[in-house]
Amino acid sequence: MALTITSIEAYPVRAPRTKPMISAGGFAPLRVSDFGIVRIRTSHGIEGLGEISMNNGRDGAIQCDDVRRLIAPALTGSNPLEIRRAIVTMDRTLDGSEPAKAAVEMALWDIAGKVAGRPVYEMLGGRIHDRVFIRWGLAFGDPAAGVEEIAPWIARGVRTIKVKIGRPGTGLDQAMVKAVREAVGDGVNVMVDANSGYRTPLQAVKEIERLEAYDLQLVEQPIHRKRLADLAFIRNHISTPILADESIRHWPDAYDVARHGAADALGIYICEAGGILPALNAAAIGEAAGLVVTIGSQCELGIGTAAMAHAAVCMPNLAFESDITGHLRYPLDIINEQLDYRDGAIHPPEAPGLGVTLNEDVLERWRLDR
What we know:
CATH superfamily of the largest domain: Enolase-like C-terminal domain
Strand content: 15-25%
CATH class of the largest domain: Alpha Beta
CATH topology of the largest domain: TIM Barrel
Strand order of the largest sheet: 5-6-7-8-9-10-11
Helix content: 25-40%
Order of helices and strands: EEEHHHHEEHEHEHEHEHEHHEHEEH
Number of helices: 13
CATH architecture of the largest domain: Alpha-Beta Barrel
Radius of gyration: 20 Å
Number of domains: 2
Largest sheet: 7 strands, parallel
Shape: globular
Number of strands: 13
């Protein structure tokens, strides 16, 4: 009998953070992450796990509802190994809700890998990179506290620190970047992330030029994501490469960024792209345009983090370091395993599928629909 999907379940969860995240993104300090966990059951007893990851208020619960009401009826009874067909079906069923689609798609890859007895990266054609180097991000805060926070990560081999900026005219950004650069010396990269914090391209250029004295690796998203001509202007008036992040809300946006000459690098998210294959599509657009990519993060839990690692090692134009550290920002995780971080890098799990299992106790503790 052919393998079929018998049910698709989605559970909204609220994960408390170890430390609030504060940035120029316009949100209140993030003290929790409201996500969703997707579980797909099949006729042969093989289950797949996925994660809805998006730090925007109640998006986790809303997109769990999208999975239950729209995606589950459309895919139940179908073959879970026909992943491309499932992506097309989800796109026809639901315009938007890419994190929900991503969670379902990664659960299908989890099933496919388990059926084949192979890790997901092998199902994608095999890895190009043995590991993915990571960076650690610093939110707004006291420079001395920031220096203290990054010390153990530098000791673990992390070779890039990302500093949140976007407070023009205050001197606060310069104080933090200066403190970090002085603490890490010349042997560690320092990049900055403005989260669209500047109002005009001239303001962005003026503020970034002050920070370039501290030898920046990248400047991430200095202005609103839709203002690609302004992003190109900034790129042409500073010496540090530009990383487009929020400008790639959906994977085809990579084409618009490349066409406008708006960035040197693309920040790709599995959750925002709509899944692993769509994320690889975005990377391929970048590769064709001569752009490199990094992996961005919504501070995913362990399931999403594993999916990011599997996808990243398969991207030919992956460069710089990536934000595959989200699950390390919580006191607990939704998975039973400890992911493999060594020498400043994450190594994808080697077990079949995504290589992670659900911690049922944590799921019950964090569920919002009990």
